[in-house]
UniProtKB/TrEMBL annotation:
This is Nucleoside diphosphate kinase. One of its GO terms (molecular function) is nucleoside diphosphate kinase activity. GO terms for cellular component: cytoplasm. SMART domains: NDK (SM00562). Gene3D superfamilies: Nucleoside diphosphate kinase-like domain. The lineage of its organism: Bacteria, Pseudomonadati, Pseudomonadota, Gammaproteobacteria, Chromatiales. The active site is at residue 117.
Length: 143
C-alpha cells in the first residue's frame, strides 16, 4: 500500500468546541502522522479559492461564510492509504449519515457545520497540501 499525504482542516465549529486534541488523537490512533500544521483565520479570498470546485453549488456562500467564521486548524497527514483512511475516520459529509464512532458522527452538528475537511483523492490531496504548505514546511517523519 502506498504512503500518501492528505490535507485535513479542523473547521471553525470544532475549533470553537475545543476538540483539536481529541481529533488529533483519532488521527494518531488511525496511524496518520501530522507532517505540517498551522492555525489560521481564513480570508474570504482564501476560502473561496480553496473551495473553488464548489463555486456554482447553492451552498457555496454559506460554506465560505462558515469557513471564515473563526480560526481553523490545518494539517497535512501522512500514512499508508492516508486519503481514504482519513475520510473513513471523518465519516460521511452529513453527520446524520455518518457511521457511529466517526469524527462527524461524534462532533458535527449538521451538514453545514461538519467539524472537519479531508481531501477526496490523491490528486486533490497534493493540490490542497500545496495550497497551505510549502515544501520546506513538510517534515519527514521517518524515524
Ligand atoms: P469536505 O470537502 O469539507 O471534506 O467535505 P466533503 O468532501 O465530505 O463534502 P463536499 O461535497 O466536498 O462539500 C464541501 C462542504 O460543503 C458543505 N456541503 N453542504 N447543504 C449541502 O447539501 C452541502 N453539501 C456540501 C459541507 O459542509 C461539506 O463539508
Ligand atoms: Mg470535499
Amino acid at each position: 500500500m502506498a504512503v500518501e499525504r492528505t490535507l485535513s482542516i479542523i473547521k471553525p465549529d470544532a475549533v470553537a468546541k475545543n476538540i483539536i486534541g481529541e481529533i488529533y488523537s483519532r488521527f494518531e490512533r488511525a496511524g496518520l502522522k501530522i507532517v505540517a500544521a498551522r492555525m489560521l483565520h481564513l480570508s474570504r479570498e482564501q476560502a473561496e479559492a480553496f473551495y473553488a470546485v464548489h463555486k456554482e453549488r447553492p451552498f457555496f456562500k454559506d460554506l465560505v461564510d462558515f469557513m471564515i467564521s473563526g480560526p481553523v486548524m490545518v494539517q497535512a497527514l501522512e500514512g499508508e492509504n492516508a486519503v481514504a483512511r482519513h475520510r473513513e475516520i471523518m465519516g460521511a459529509t452529513d453527520p446524520k449519515q455518518a457511521e457511529p464512532g466517526t469524527i462527524r458522527a461524534d462532533f458535527a452538528d449538521s451538514i453545514d457545520e461538519n467539524a472537519v475537511h479531508g481531501s477526496d483523492a490523491v490528486e486533490t490531496a497534493t493540490q490542497e497540501v500545496n495550497f497551505f504548505f510549502g515544501p520546506d514546511e513538510l517534515c519527514a517523519r521517518t524515524r
